[in-house]
Structure formats: structure tokens, C-alpha cells
Amino acid sequence: MNTNCAKAFTAMCLGSFLTPWALSAVETANDDQYLSWPVYSGQDLELDATPRQANFRLWSPKAEAVRLMIYPTDRNSKAIETVDMKASENGTWTASLAGNYYGKFYTFSIKHNGRWLDETPGVWAKAVGTNGHRAAIIDFDTTDPAGWSDDRGPVVDNITDVVLYEMHHRDFSVDPSSGIVNKGKFLALTEAGTHNQTGESTGIDHLKELGVTHVHILPSYDYNSVDEANLPSNQYNWGYDPYNYNVPEGSYSTNPADPVVRVREMKEMIKALHDAGIGVVMDVVYNHTADNDGSNFSLTAPGYYYRHRSDGSYSDASGCGNETASERKQMSDFIVNSVKYWANEYHVDGFRFDLMAIHDTETMDRVAAELKKINPSIFVYGEGWTAGDSPLPAERRALKENVAKMEGIAVFSDDIRDAVKGHYSNAADRGFATGKPGNEETVKIGIVASTAHPQVDYSKGNNSKFAYASAPTQIINYVSCHDDLTLTDKLAKSMPEASETERQRAARLAQTIVFTSQGTPFMFAGEEVFRDKKGVHNSYKSPDSINAIDWNLKHKNSEQFEYYRQLIKLRKEHPAFRMTTADQIARHLVFDEKTDENVISYTLRDHANGDVWKEIKVVFNGNPKAMEVKVAKRNWTVIAEDGRIDADGLGSSRGGKISVAPTSALILAR
Ligand code: CA
After folding, report:
1. For 126, left (φ over 0), alpha (ψ -120 to 50), or beta?
2. Which of 25, 66, 145, 157 is deepest in the core (most CB within 10 A)?
């Protein structure tokens, strides 16, 4: 059984080059059989309940028989009814029960090859009890917080206007320094007025102060690894081990046994964030399941939902023991309908697809198109790589190299990530911001969001050799995330001789490159207070002592926080950093030629993207010594210099020869 996988290393390692493996058939011979299975497109799968009746419909085309069990409680009880379901249209089985079943629980069991399989809550459970083993029948009207029908997330015209903040519920609030009551829970983000020991804001007030537009929450659907019956035992998991895709995770609720509570509390969290003007992005992991034969997919329609090798074994592009088969209609529909459900029922504003390249581009196109119909502000991005080979041909995979073929999908730029701070898997490796020459052209690829630009030579790119994005709206820029070393730890391991002050300067330079680049910026929670994870690069099940953010760092590193806050303010106030087309970037962003080693200098000219500033000069000095640059002699306002930044200006400059301080950004505007 595979309940977790060390995905951090494998998931990222293939991001760095075009998939080298040979193309294979669309389906292996073994998987051809599934093409002939009937599919069911109705929206009433598994449960449709009212106060007068409960109707059940399970999709299981090859089942020999199907049973429905009704339970009085979520566990430790015997079935009060067992019903033989009837074969119905398009591979489904149905049963109808008269009466009010709210408060009851149910499971299905199918007969397969003459044997009754283990009970399952199905694949479309929308409420569950403890550990998700039994689905629950609840009245969803009772789950809505006050004012829910008027709840709206922020309007997003272009994804490039978004500032993403990736957080784990436990990291964010579990440390005593958060001052938050509901530690590690959805409700943590509903608490206003919380602060650390020295009075600096924490929680949702901190997010408002920082100015991010969207929080990207790590997996918050019901996952497998944390025992919801034993929550005080200080368990931690990132949650990349999906169990019930359409139900919130119980350990983030205050009572996993009551199926209404987790639904209502997640909605309360989303409402509180929306009321604060902040959107919510869900990390979704449809590419694999925690279990193979024991998953809800396998227990309802054995074989169908997964890809297999020619010998019949599970193929494993996820590095987690299996991979799902989005090219099959019922699985593609499952993904599309699942994200639609989260958007409609929970008002989710965006989706981040884990190992997105395991999915086919056609399914991702459908995801984006269907979500835009619900709310044009919803956006979708993902990891444009796999963690292993797949039977799905490379040209059909939602790879970063195929992003231009998709509509409304963005991918993470591993180009800028590795070039700015050094390679993710080699802790000691340095990048542009930490003084290693040779990364300049790849940083430039990041600055132009991997679009075609007359002054960028893609043949010198470290990770990508062509302009794979057709627009900056297809690129997410970052230097760290939950995977791999935090930026703080990466800097500690790659510049061990440097002081903490010097490492903080390097972090400022690295994030200044991210936040001024074209594309959408993304940051890992807590980096604004220089949080670390004690050097642990794959902390997916490490204890709170590794993962929790110490909010007293906000006091100790107050200047770091202020730098990040100003950086975000600068980006949000100036559309020149948020162009929406490749053509705009090619016309308005001009690099200076003949710069010194490990110096990048460019101009955003002619009121780029309607900016009030006519011209913006951006210079990055990745060298540990001051470097001289020539700037046009004009009356400039200094926005950033020598590790300081103020979106409203630090002072003035006449241009000419300017000394750029070691490991720092110079930004001038007029
Ligand atoms: Ca769970």
C-alpha cells in the first residue's frame, strides 16, 4: 500500500528537460478494453437526497451485482439496511429509499469476478464521517455560513494581476506564536485580531497587511494519512495522498466525526478570506490516489480509472504507485465535474494541478473552459511535468512545453526557480542571486515569462531551449514552494560562509526578480519573515517542530517583512510588471546589452501596459561586490536600492554612472 510518496524529489527532477522517453501507444493493449465501457454523464451520481427520499446511482459497468448499505453512525455500527441495487442505464446501478435519510451514512460494495469487494463510500461522496470510510447524507443548506449566497471572491481580469501565497493549514497557525485559537484548522483563517508575542499581526490580518491577493492552500480534500480519530497525536502531512476528492479533510475541522462540520468550517474559512478581499486556490491531486486496489476508484470500477503497463501492472508517472487515466471519458468527466463542484459549492477561486502533465491537454482545456463558465475570475495552473514515464504520449501530456497548446492554463517556471537560487536538488549549488555566473540568460527567460523575445537566446537556457509560452498569463514564477528546501534553508546551505544579513539580502534579490518579472508571482508562506524548515527538504510528514512558522520571526525580521510588503505593493500598483501578451513584452521590455557578469539590466519603456510611469529601470546585481551600471541621465525616483525598497520612492537620482550595491536590486522610475 502506498499512503505517501516522497514526491518532492521525483516530481521536480523531470521538470528540467524535455521528456526523453520514446512515445508509446495512446493506450496499452491491456487498456484498450476500457474504450468500450459505457459512460454516464448525468449529474446525479451516487447520491441525490431530499427530506423525502434518497436516490443512489453508482457507475460500475462491469459489476456483477452492487449493494448499498445504510448506517446509523460514521463507524463502529452495523448496517441498518442493505439494499440490492438494480442495473440501470450507461453502466450505472440504482436504488431509491423513501423517507428522510439526513444524518445517516452509506457505503457501496460491488461483486467483481465472483467476489464481493470491500465497502467504499464511492468516488462522489460529498460528505463523510471520521477518516472518510462512510459517506454521509446531509442537508447542504445547513452547511452555509451567514451571507454565503452573497459571497464572492476577488475579481481577476488577468492571472498576472494575482499574487499567490502557498500555505499549509498547520504550518500557518499551529505554532503558539500565532496567537490563534483554532490552530491547524480551517477556522484559523477566520480569526481577526491575532498577533505574536510582540504584537505584530498574524493569521488573516497578516495576509491583509502583506497584500497577497490569493492563498493557495495545500491539499484540503479528504486525504488518507492523518488519523482523524486520533488528532491530538500531533500528526502532520502535506496531503498528497487523496482519498475522497469531493469532501474537505477532516483533520482541519474541529470535529471530523460530524460530517456537516468540516463542510461548514471550510466554507467559513473561504468566506472570511473573501471578506478580506483574498481569493482561495485549491491544490488538487487527481493524478494518483493513495491506494491502488484499495482506492475508491478501484472499489467501484476496477481498472478503469488507471493507466497500466502492457503486463497489466499499474503504470506510475506519479512516483506514488499509480497514475489516473484522464484520457478516458468517465475519468476526464470526474476531474471536470469535481473542480466545478468545488467552484460552485465552496466558491473556490482557482486550482493548482499537481503533476499536471499526467493529465491530457484536452482534459485540462475542458477544466479551464468549464470553470470560466462558472466564474470568469477562476484561473488554473499546474506542475507541467510528471514524476516518471507514462503510457500517455508526450504530445498529449499537459507538459510545460505544451502550455501554448492549451487555453487558460499556466505552468510553474522551473527555469527562473533554478536559475535564480541554484538547482533545487543540489543544495550547495548557487544561482544568479547568490553569485554564480552563467545563469543570466535563464533568468532573462524568466523575466520575459518564457515568451519569445528578440534579446533572449533560448539556446543558452539551462532548463528550456525554446520559448514555450505564447503569453505571460501561462507562467507562474517562483523561487521556492513546499517542495524542496525553503529559500532560507537553500541560502544557508549554498552560502554557508555568509551572515544571516547577507542571506536575507540574497532572499530579497531573489524575490525582487520574481515579483518584477512578467508572469504571475508565487511565494511560499512565511518567507516574508525568513522562516526555515531546519534544512529538511522533503518535510511532507515532518512534525510541527520542522514545519510550523514561528511568528515571532516577524518581529526579529521586521525589515525583511517590510521589504516583501513593499515589493508586493510595487507590483500591484504598476501594470508594467503585469503585461498580458508576448507582443507587449517584446515591445516594452528592453534589455541592456553588454552588461557585466552576473548583472542583468532592463528598461520597461513607454508606459508599459498603461503604467503611469513612462520608464522603469530594473537592475539586478547578483555579485557579492558593488557593480557600476550606466543609466540614462534623467530625473529618476529611486524605488529600490541597496536592499531597501519603497513603492512610493526612497529618494531621487540624476542617472549616469551608478554603483549598484552587492547582491541587490536597483529600481528607478520616472
Ligand atoms: Ca482524511
Report:
1. alpha
2. 66
Give the pLDDT confidence of 299-332 residue by residue, as tens digits. 999 999 999 999 999 999 999 999 999 999 999 9
pLDDT digits (tens, 9 = 90+) for 506-555: 999 999 999 999 999 999 999 999 999 999 999 999 999 999 999 999 99
Residue 172, C-alpha cell as written in the block = 500557518
Please tell me what DSSP assigns to residue 22.
P
Residue type at position 102: Y
CB atoms within 10 A of CB 42: 11
Q: What's the CA-to-centroid distance between 250 and ligand 1, angstroms?
A: 5
Distance between CA 332 and CA 215 in Å, rounded?
27
Q: In the structure grid, which three cell numbers stand for residue 332, read together?
A: 476526464
Q: DSSP string covering 175-241, please?
A: SGGG--SSTTSGGGGG--S-B-TTS-B-HHHHHHHHT-SEEEES--EEESSS-TT-GGGT------S
End-to-end alpha carbon distance in the chain: 61
- Amino acid, res. 495: M
- pTM to 2 decimals? 0.96
- For residue 191, the CA-to-ligand 1 centroid distance in Å is 24
Residues found in the chain = 670
For the chain, which ranges sit under pLDDT 50?
1-4, 6-25
What is the model's pLDDT at position 30? 78
Residues belonging to the active site: 354, 383
Answer whether 196's CB lies under 8 Å from 178's CB.
yes
Rg (CA), the chain: 25
- DSSP class of residue 30? G
Instruction: Tell how strand 279-284 and strand 214-217 pair up.
Output: parallel
Cβ contacts of residue 240 below 8 Å, gap of 6+? Answer: 4, 5, 7, 219, 223, 285, 320, 354, 540
What spacing in Å lies between the alpha carbon of 564 and ligand 1's midpoint? 34
The set of cell numbers assigned to 404 is: 501554448
Residue 365 CB-density burial (10 A; 0-12 exposed, 13-18 middle, 19+ buried): middle
- Distance, CA 663 to ligand 1 centroid (Å)? 44
Residues 6+ apart with CB under 8 A from 497: none
Model pLDDT for residues 346-401, shown as the tens digit of each residue? 999 999 999 999 999 999 999 999 999 999 999 999 999 999 999 999 999 999 99
Cα-based distances in Å from 624 to 69, 498, 506, 513 = 68, 10, 9, 16
CA of 356 to the centre of ligand 1 (A): 23
Task: Give the Cβ contact number of residue 579 at 10 Å.
Answer: 29
Contact 380, 520 (CB under 8 A): no
Instruction: Please tell me the distance between residue 519's alpha carbon and the centre of ligand 1 in angstroms.
Output: 34
Give dist(CA 42, CA 371) in Å, integer.
18
* Alpha-carbon gap, residue 242 to 72, rounded angstroms: 26
Ligand 1: centre distance to CA 295 (Å) = 13
